[in-house]
Amino acid sequence: MDAQPGRSVTSKVLALLDAFTPASPALTLSELARRAELPLPTASRRVAELVAWGALERGDDGRYRIGLRLWEVGSLAPRGLGLRELALPTMEDLYEVTHENVQLAVRQDVELVFIERIAGRHAVPVLTRVGGRFALHATGVGLVLLAYAPAEVQEQVLAAPLERYTPLTITEPGRLRRGLAEVRRTGYAVSDRQVTMDALSVAAPICGPEGSVVAAISLVVAHHRADPVALAPLVQAAGRTISRSLGTSYGPRGSVG
Amino acid sequence: MDAQPGRSVTSKVLALLDAFTPASPALTLSELARRAELPLPTASRRVAELVAWGALERGDDGRYRIGLRLWEVGSLAPRGLGLRELALPTMEDLYEVTHENVQLAVRQDVELVFIERIAGRHAVPVLTRVGGRFALHATGVGLVLLAYAPAEVQEQVLAAPLERYTPLTITEPGRLRRGLAEVRRTGYAVSDRQVTMDALSVAAPICGPEGSVVAAISLVVAHHRADPVALAPLVQAAGRTISRSLGTSYGPRGSVG
DNA sequence: CACGGCCTTTCACTCAGTGAAACCGGAACT
DNA sequence: AGTTCCGGTTTCACTGAGTGAAAGGCCGTG
After folding, report:
1. Who has the most CB within 10 Å: A85, A95, B177, B198?
2. Is there contact between B59 and strand D, defined as CB under 7 Å from any strand atom?
3. With an 8 Å Cβ cutoff, is A214 touching chain B?
């Protein structure tokens, strides 16, 4: 016990899981130990238990990877699978009509998590990943999720520095605040070259049974052939359809006037 | 320490996660403690840590659910997300052509796990679930995965009693063995009313770079309007397409003659 | 055959984890 | 307003699960 005296076993186990990222999905024991800030023997023992359970798998190369078992359990997350399952048919419809990228995301604290994505073969390549996180202030889905988020979340995002992804990214809190008001007024969000210079996205809210916004759906299209105003009704209709299948009478209730 | 003396903390934590099932995705602390066979105070403490990390979430109703964070980490499972991501476009193509259920599954020990599913709006309702497990001896994907599984896995399945789902389910080891040989010969599997009396599925293998079968794809259609022989080439083509995108020269190498 | 990288096991120590019991607070009776 | 039940949390003294330094495999490789 040197690094953090009194570190719980549970936190160590979770730190081991945290060591895996999209950029490094396969790690040797040494790498794992270093990332989790654990002595090697400790890592060895905990990892052995995780492998026995199926949370991790050891490949032929000796490296450890996240195991299917963990994915299985994770699939029980109601906001993950439940929503996904309900939304997928509608997302497919939207894809069949537009043949553009369709994305589904939920808010997790001050970030968003992509729940599902239909990547069109001929659509703009998007750099997002299902299961991946992203800031709320740039993407279409992010703007929708932020616009209908609790006031404290909005303030937290507006107070922190807004990361810039392109020369056009809105990084000024005042402009973002006005943008969010506009989203609530129109009921959809447009993110024009905010994340990459070739993409534009149009997003709409998805509401749960109590009327709160639980997710957002978006179309991501090439910026040059985009007509946000024409796309918005399509995305909004999809959002309404999914909301309805969640058992709600549609109508997002904003939290901030 | 009474129940199992010497039970590791890690195993307790994992037991808590195990308590969640598709049938009971939301549990009170007491239920959790009971299922994990832990005293309530212990469960309370471990659960608190899991919630802090995001593995679990506590709903408004006080019940605990699997959290998004766990789903996020689980999404890093290479056989989960990696395959899914690669296969989805092809699955969509197959869906657009047939408008039937398309399923993707991998083998996990002596069972299969559904990785992805496109549920057609007007297709037969299937009772399977993404992230769910199933026996290998009944479904189309199961037969494919079993036919190309290592010999010891096949023997293990053939040795155990084969569960019956319908009057037509093959439960006799000899017949199953012959069926598997037929799958290897033709390169696809047909499961006719083996799981439910109204559905039939046609499945084909997906091969990894080294030629081993890593997954299976299937179409599930209503039994009465099914023409397996006509569907097989479609499914096989989809399997080949996905195999190719996995970076392989197609050709499943069977393990058992 | 010595060296280094990588991982597992040994061993004596000790503090994180433990569970019985007490405590808390809300809901449901009386 | 008092009592009991129920679900959950906290206290407290005890103890064995977890620990890490060191030693021990087990490869490839120079």
Report:
1. A95
2. no
3. no
